[in-house]
């Protein structure tokens, strides 16, 4: 299978079918699955440091071993083939291939990704590479991290290394995964690595992540064949006001600005939104932060926008004297990730919750996709992450039955199908996640995988949802019922 290509969509009257050549995949991230933390020259990333810091990750868990994908990738690719996956979205560990974040690559690190992509191609599975899924080399963080402008240039250099190493094998490239989490959870609330709680650093990191993306797109385009496709993946918040009041509408506007438009504005439209700049002018000097030429770099054209969705974001303006509620779904902290809008209150959309205490609401995915299609009609979309954590266990018969996940996937895939029927150019869907894995600050306490991982033995057991998803892929259509 080749890189994602344009296709003619099916008749909107179709009830269950997806477009011909719709890309069916699954996704993982390097630190969450690879393990082999010190193998073949790899040095610590910010997540190695963070997870080894007492109190930062539940149960003291680390990604040192994770799902040992580094050693078991051949078995995992065989499993993907058995399930019928058409594409595999993986991320590259920056500190595995460029340990200091500067200078030449380590060939042993590059060789792992060469072996992985060769194995995928041999199995008929399209490799989709993400350059950055939150694991900044620790040496770059020590030099200032994403709030430091030089990190953006280091990222572009790294993109150039990877394009030359894998450009003959990988035709679809993503620069950043969820830069909102990198900036606002990493430098704002501190619940993600590097664990800093500095409002100004948060906004500086956001701008330099944007700049790093643009510079990396330039580096990729200079090195890759013209057929290659480039993208960025954003976890866009489907923001809803709790009530129809003007105050709640303003709360939604503020969160949309700091949660979405801080990235979509410069990347897709070539400018930061005026209301974001006004809301945050007391925190950072944007005139000093944004250099001449930055916005032109950041807004380099991309071929597809990756969209990650799990749950809607419901907000309100709290009553006078009332404290703000913390149901924003992004972990407990005394510091808000919503820089400049930390007075906004967050609410659950409903009481139908996953094990992450995230509300299940597939209508948010439909709205997100159709709104993007309306605002940027010529930009193809990919759902690059969607899934749910539940309390999975192995039955005495050795099976993992997860009907809640099957229901979740059915409802959200139907939302994707309906968005396509309503005119959204959605080219594919990547289930999060292929494997149970290290779930960041939750350690191994949450299971998102379609495949169960016994962390003591590394045994893989496809869950009922994996078999269900395999049927969907084979039929290119949803079944009539769950």
TrEMBL record:
Enzyme class: hydrolase
InterPro entries per UniProt: GH (IPR017853), GH_1_N_CS (IPR033132), Glyco_hydro_1 (IPR001360), Glyco_hydro_1_beta-glucosidase (IPR017736)
Annotated Gene3D superfamilies: Glycosidases (3.20.20.80)
Organism superkingdom: Bacteria
GO molecular function: beta-glucosidase activity
Enzyme Commission identifier(s): 3.2.1.21
Annotated catalysed reactions: Hydrolysis of terminal, non-reducing beta-D-glucosyl residues with release of beta-D-glucose
Keywords recorded for this protein, A-Z: Carbohydrate metabolism, Cellulose degradation, Glycosidase, Hydrolase, Polysaccharide degradation
PROSITE patterns linked to this entry: GLYCOSYL_HYDROL_F1_2
Record-stated family: Belongs to the glycosyl hydrolase 1 family.
PANTHER family per the UniProt record, alphabetical: GLYCOSYL HYDROLASE, LP05116P
Protein name per its UniProtKB record: Beta-glucosidase
Protein's organism: Streptomyces kaempferi
């Amino acid at each position: 299978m080749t890189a994602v290509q344009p296709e003619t969509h099916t008749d909107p009257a179709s009830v269950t079918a997806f477009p011909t050549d719709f890309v069916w995949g699954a996704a993982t991230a390097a630190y969450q699955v690879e393990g082999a933390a010190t193998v073949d020259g790899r040095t610590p990333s910010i997540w190695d440091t963070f997870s080894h810091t007492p109190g930062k990750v539940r149960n003291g868990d680390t990604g040192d071993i994770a799902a040992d994908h580094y050693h078991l990738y051949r078995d995992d690719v065989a499993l993907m083939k058995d399930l019928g996956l058409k594409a595999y979205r993986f991320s590259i560990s920056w500190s595995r291939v460029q340990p200091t974040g500067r200078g030449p690559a380590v060939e042993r690190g590059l060789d792992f990704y060469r072996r992985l992509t060769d194995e995928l191609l041999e199995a008929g599975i399209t490799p989709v590479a993400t350059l950055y899924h939150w694991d900044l080399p620790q040496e770059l963080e020590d030099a200032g991290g994403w709030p430091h402008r030089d990190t953006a240039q280091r990222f572009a250099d790294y993109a150039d290394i990877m394009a030359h190493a894998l450009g003959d094998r990988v035709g679809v490239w993503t620069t950043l995964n969820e830069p909102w989490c990198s900036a606002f959870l990493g430098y704002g609330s501190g619940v993600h690595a590097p664990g800093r709680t500095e409002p100004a650093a948060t906004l500086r990191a956001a701008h330099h992540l944007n700049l790093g993306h643009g510079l990396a797109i330039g580096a990729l385009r200079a090195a890759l064949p013209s057929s290659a496709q480039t993208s960025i993946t954003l976890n866009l918040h489907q923001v809803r006001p709790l009530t129809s009041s003007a105050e709640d509408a303003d709360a939604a506007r503020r969160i949309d600005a700091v949660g979405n438009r801080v990235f979509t504005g410069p990347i897709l439209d070539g400018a930061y939104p005026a209301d974001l700049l006004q809301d945050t002018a007391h925190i950072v000097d944007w005139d000093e932060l944004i250099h001449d030429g930055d916005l032109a770099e950041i807004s380099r054209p991309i071929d597809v926008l990756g969209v990650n969705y799990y749950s809607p974001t419901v907000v309100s303006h709290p009553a006078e004297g009332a404290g703000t509620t913390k149901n924003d779904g992004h972990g407990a902290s005394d510091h808000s990730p919503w820089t400049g809008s930390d007075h906004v209150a967050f609410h659950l959309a409903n009481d139908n919750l996953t094990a992450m205490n995230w509300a299940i609401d597939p209508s948010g995915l439909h709205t997100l996709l159709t709104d993007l299609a309306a605002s940027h009609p010529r930009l193809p979309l990919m759902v690059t992450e969607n899934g749910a954590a539940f309390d999975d266990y192995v039955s005495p018969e050795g099976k993992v039955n997860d009907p809640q996940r099957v229901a979740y996937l059915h409802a959200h895939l139907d939302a994707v199908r309906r968005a396509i029927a309503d005119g959204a150019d959605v080219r594919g869907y990547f289930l999060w996640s292929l494997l149970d894995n290290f779930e960041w600050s939750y350690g191994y306490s949450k299971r998102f995988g379609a495949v169960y991982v016994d962390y003591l033995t590394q045994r893989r057991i496809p869950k009922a949802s994996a078999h269900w998803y395999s049927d969907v892929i084979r039929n290119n259509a949803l079944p009539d019922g769950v």
